[in-house]
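Budget justification note: compute hours in this period were largely spent on complex prediction jobs such as the one shown. Inputs:
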Amino acid sequence: MSQRAEPATELSLRGSGLTSPRSRERLIERLQLMGIANKRVLEAVRQVPRHLFVDEAFAGRAYEDTALPIGLGQTISQPYMVARMSEAILQAGTPQRVLEIGTGSGYQTSVLAHLCGRVYSLERIGSLLEQARERFKRLDIHNVSLRHADGAQGWSAHAPYDAIVVTAAPDNIPPRLLEQLAEGGRMVIPVGAQGSAQHLLMIRREQGVLTEQVLEDVAFVPLIRGALA
Ligand code: SAH
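Corresponding output:
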């Protein structure tokens, strides 16, 4: 197979070699083997060019099912986890308003933007947020609103949310997030102290009552209080 070299400074949208559509297809097959069945979720993962969300040095590994560094001690989420969390919030139909905590690279945000009405995403590290903003522009993603703030406070101006997706792990569920979950809404959140077991929880609000279900054991970076410059 002939492979065209990527330009050194700018990776192409379509990708080639290790970032080619074929590499993406293998990732989709793997997600299916791991139990992801929702066709819309699989299509969204197929559509979003993950190689544009990682540092160039890691672009060749973008379609491996693994978390990768994005700088400042943070990581882009593992594709399986992005798919799993997206699938969990889609179980009750298409959420119109979604709150995401931890924009990071913007990868999970982009997948959610393909699946939901509008995504409101909060990030505490300003430079990551600005890089994500550039990516959304390049990819013509317009149904995302971004804010540089401590996500533990939520974003009350647009509440309540049909779904809340948290991509960094607090020790306990922040109460402000529970307050901003709509009736019939779903929240997926990894909870647990660093260094000890973390569980991915699904919280539902039905007729005013909150229920909690453990989806699986996970390992996320910590949710840190307060916004950085
Ligand atoms: N979903 C992202 C994953 C990013 S890792 C992706 O696919 O790239 C988790 C992110 O949560 C980091 O960028 C980290 O800075 C951010 N974060 C941690 N604590 C936060 C807080 N209190 N408020 C907002 N963002 C936070």
